[in-house]
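1st attempt posting a full record on here, be nice pls
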Amino acid sequence: MPANKNALIRYKTIDNCLRNRYRRWTLDDLVDACSEALYDMEGITKGVCTRTVQMDIQIMRSDKLGYNAPIVVYDKIYYTYADPDYSITDMPLSMDDCKLLKEAIVLLGNMEAPNAVRAKTVLSKVRTRLTAILNFV
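the predicted structure (as tokens):
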């Protein structure tokens, strides 16, 4: 889950930019778009630095928030998604997520003392994953 609302605004802005295939997006363009979005939504005039957007892209590419965004750089300057249909807002449940949910359902049905520790671990994972998914609904 994003650390704060501003990070979430930046992630969604970067996502919207990279989904727009009719424009070539440089890092400076993404910085400007994020700064503009933060000003429009939050009235923040300070802007965003290049390093912040670079770190946002790195987090979006990773599994840390469950995005695994296929962000690529072409011509050594332009950013886009390798998959034109990708969006961080369209995150279906993975097979691992489905297995985890099934296990949670079974554990909830058999909530007895021996299963309590295992249930707590599984439910913690389910809660973390569902929270990440539901932040974009």
